[in-house]
Structure formats: structure tokens, C-alpha cells
Design brief:
alpha+beta; two-stranded antiparallel ribbon; 4 strands; 22% helix; elongated; Prokaryotic metallothionein
């Protein structure tokens, strides 16, 4: 059994959730970890958290807990 993920005008077909996560999850632009769960988007750039965003010079970013 397969399922489709529709994102940004494209359709992706997967047969398991782990493959979908591996293919679709954004990568932190500072530490390069795959962001699964909550991340931080700043000016079109993705980070795993506020710490990595600040390390890249982004200001005023806080984690929501």
C-alpha cells in the first residue's frame, strides 16, 4: 500500500512513513541534522532550533516550549 504526499506543487509516493520522513524533512542549515518535529524557519532558512539559528547570526529567535 502506498500513499501520496503533496508538497510545493509536487506529488511524492511512498510505501512507508520512514521513507517519507527521510525524503521530505528539511535539514538544519547550521548543524545539518534532519528536522523531524518542530524546527525554526527564519527568512526562508530552516534550523533545528533557536540555538542553531542564533549561531548563524539570526536575531530575536526563541524556542517555543
Amino acid at each position: 500500500m502506498t500513499f501520496e504526499v503533496h508538497a510545493q506543487g509536487a506529488v511524492h509516493v511512498f510505501d512507508c512513513f520512514s521513507c517519507a520522513i527521510h525524503r521530505m524533512a528539511p535539514i538544519c542549515e547550521h548543524c545539518r541534522v534532519q528536522i523531524i518535529g518542530q524546527g525554526v524557519e527564519v527568512e526562508g532558512h530552516w534550523f533545528c532550533g533557536a540555538h542553531c539559528a542564533r549561531a548563524e547570526g539570526k536575531v530575536g529567535i526563541i524556542d517555543k516550549v
